[in-house]
Write a structure and sequence with these properties.
Layout (H helix, E strand, L loop, with lengths): L13 H6 L22 E5 L2 H11 L16 H6 L15 H11 L10 E3 L2 E3 L14 H21 L2 E6 L3 E5 L22 E5 L2 H18 L4 E6 L13 H20 L5 E3 L2 H6 L17 H19 L23 H6 L19
Parallel strand pairs: 1-4, 4-7, 7-8
Antiparallel strand pairs: 2-3, 5-6
Helix pairs in contact: 4-5, 4-6, 6-7
Length: 366
């Protein structure tokens, strides 16, 4: 007797595809829709995990593109501290589809960028990228000029890239109550002052996230019809949650919704794909081996395995040799930043600032 399960591949059964395999030998998790070659012009944006992705591409000689390079006088460490070379443009982390949509609407004139400014001590901060200037800006005019440079870099990235990689990280955010504009982090944490009358917590539901992601994709493809988009979901758990739930269940909810949004926007489209870095890092099959002791940060071995799967699946789909750990830094890329320790790497992620507000007896492995 024949039925739909008779002729399935071994990878489509848990026993043969997972249980009987060594976890590190599990393959074919991704069937890529389009090729990404060393000559492909790639830009990256999104949450903290996207930084691992761009570094891995550069280390293997792929053409990761930096459209907002650091001034020539800055060394690598200083450039990284000022958020140069972290993403393809100097927005800092973009955690949600709503934030991506905002930046694209501002860059392409769909909506005006807000003029709100935060203050901390003598420094002035951009509420939508508060971590890019460690000591703040000197004046509102300086914030405006800096943001215009970034918006121009976004326009160049969208129009000149072949592949736009976006890593979704969160559903939770803080917004301006009246306008709905979303901040990079809760006011009063990195800078500014929290005002419950002006600021509101938002935990985006699936329909809103889907609408925002589709709106962002529409802008990307309007400006560059040939642009391919590769989505990922960050495997990094939430640092903290303002939802009232336990942070573990809040993380599960957030990541599940983002994963569902990714599946929905990819369905039936050849120009939008999803790469399962989230599943590779977080699946119980791997026994948590890819996480640091704090069970939040992803170890280099985890990033290496994710990228090995990426290149292996690309080679299986489109032929060619798998990438090796090489070398040449593309002409339009920043030099690869020096290795940074756990504390320094956390500082690049705005959301990680929230760990400083945990009760002293709960900070342990934050």
């Amino acid at each position: 007797m024949s039925h739909p399960y008779t002729h399935l591949e071994p990878t489509q059964f848990w026993r043969t595809g997972v249980a009987q395999m060594d976890a590190l030998d599990i393959c074919g998790l991704w069937q890529p829709k389009f090729p990404i070659a060393p000559t492909t012009r790639i830009c990256t944006a999104g949450s903290c995990f996207a930084q691992h992705f761009s570094r891995a591409l550069r280390q293997r000689g792929y053409q990761w593109c930096n459209f907002e390079p650091a001034p020539a006088f800055m060394d690598q460490d200083l450039a990284a501290a000022y958020n140069y070379g972290v993403f393809s443009f100097r927005t800092g982390n973009i955690y949600t589809p709503k934030m991506l949509r905002q930046w694209l609407e501002w860059a392409f004139g769909v909506a005006p960028a807000p003029r709100e400014i935060w203050q901390l001590g003598d420094g002035l901060y951009d509420p939508f990228r508060p971590a890019i200037e460690p000591d703040g800006f000197a004046s509102p005019a300086e914030i405006g000029l800096s943001r215009e440079v970034t918006l121009a870099a976004i326009r160049d990235a969208v129009r000149q890239s072949d592949v736009f990689v976006f890593t979704m990280g969160l559903t939770e955010s803080w917004a301006h109550r009246a306008s709905g504009v979303e901040y990079a982090i809760c006011p009063g944490t990195a800078a500014g002052q929290f005002d419950p009358a002006a600021h509101v917590f938002v935990n985006h539901p699936y329909p809103d996230l889907l609408e925002d992601m589709n709106a962002a994709l529409a802008i990307l493809h309007l400006e560059n019809p040939k642009l391919k988009v590769l989505l990922t979901v960050s495997p990094v758990p939430l640092t903290a949650t303002a939802s009232g739930a336990h942070v573990l269940t809040a993380t599960s909810l957030s990541k599940s919704i983002l994963r569902a949004v990714a599946a929905a926007v990819c369905a039936g489209r050849e120009d939008v794909d999803y790469f399962p870095s989230f599943e590779i890092i977080t699946s119980p099959v791997y026994g948590g081996r890819f996480f640091a002791p704090n069970m939040r940060q992803v170890l280099p071995a985890g990033v290496d395995h994710v990228m090995a799967c990426f290149f292996k699946d690309q080679a299986a789909a489109f032929g060619g040799e798998q990438a090796h750990d090489v070398a040449p830094t593309p002409q339009n890329s920043q030099p690869i930043p020096a290795e940074i320790d756990e504390a320094q790497e956390e500082l690049i992620c705005e959301e990680a600032i929230l760990s400083a507000f945990a009760p002293k007896n709960a900070q342990g492995n934050t």
